[in-house]
């Protein structure tokens, strides 16, 4: 940028510039490290065979021992230990809370980028950050992604709601089953708002079964559940009983392998197009896409910013090798695992530009007073 005083010498790099250069260094492998590459991952990623430099690998888990991410930490432990050529098994430390925010705060504040410690966290922690949750003191955009696991998420509604949506009066209230108003079901609230109706969150439905029961008893009009939680036969029974699946939440651009049952449903943009001739408001729609991807993220394994490129490369080799042995198990849970460039793409898609982030936070702020009043 031109200076107002042309004769002034150029100032040295600012701290912000140095941090940016450091972040780039964490994901760009130097030539010397590339020469040691022995395998290639998705989209031509160079993967460096571990040399045993990571002597004490550890995973911080964004959830308790009974959480899904803890299950996947245990599942990844043996293949990761072998692929890293570590002299001892990976040390796994669980944390309190189910949404991963506590562990993410700890990871961001206390873990040094020495290449020994990674974090495995559910997408709910990323969603909490995007929603402006006051508990969040971490910046997930600074982390270096190793693995991203995503699963399809569907929205189911009463048939009369679907049939009459085109004729609904604007701002008509629609009851939506949620765990909390800014929890994993936030994308459905925003999506319905974009459709022109007024979503009213009905909180306390923290499991797919409780949400399905609430729909069956007419306590809510719309629910959001993981696709894997509703087998094909039950999905068909729900449709026959008057509760069809309406649309799927958007997933990352890396997710080109959605299962056939979920991909037969329209994504939200396609569903929106059935009722509106113009695309939705761009900033909020872009924010919706990001929080939808976050809500569809079952897990993310990340390293701290400023981890040296050679250690990032070794972890990426190990995570790629580990995930290759776990694809069938992931598929049984309806999840796709992405590593390398595909993992980086899936992770970046959950981090929209500032305008979209602000649009989501403003949307929440405008409705929180009403939600608190019930």
Fraction of residues in β-strands: 15-25%
| Low-pLDDT residue spans | 1-44
Tally of strands: 13
Mean pLDDT level: 85
CATH superfamily of the largest domain: Bordetella uptake gene, domain 1
Q: Would you give an account of this structure?
A:
InterPro entries: TAT_signal. This is Tripartite-type tricarboxylate transporter, receptor component TctC. It is a single chain. The chain is an alpha/beta fold and 374 residues long. It has 2 domains: 15-150 and 294-351, 3-Layer(aba) Sandwich (D-Maltodextrin-Binding Protein, domain 2), CATH 3.40.190.150; 153-291 and 357-373, 3-Layer(aba) Sandwich (D-Maltodextrin-Binding Protein, domain 2). Helices cover 43% and strands 17% of the residues. The protein is built from 16 helices and 13 strands. α3 (68-84) packs across α13, α5 packs antiparallel against α12 and α7 runs antiparallel to α12. The termini are far apart. Residues 1-44 have low confidence and may be disordered.
Provide the fold topology:
Elements: H1 15-27, H2 31-34, E1 37-40, E2 46-48, E3 58-61, H3 68-84, E4 91-93, H4 101-110, E5 117-121, H5 123-130, E6 144-151, E7 153-157, H6 159-164, E8 173-177, H7 186-195, E9 198-202, H8 208-216, E10 222-226, H9 232-240, E11 245-248, H10 260-263, H11 268-273, H12 282-295, E12 297-303, H13 309-324, H14 327-332, E13 335-339, H15 340-348, H16 354-373
Parallel strand pairs: 3-4, 3-5, 8-9
Antiparallel strand pairs: 1-2, 5-12, 6-12, 6-13, 7-10, 7-11
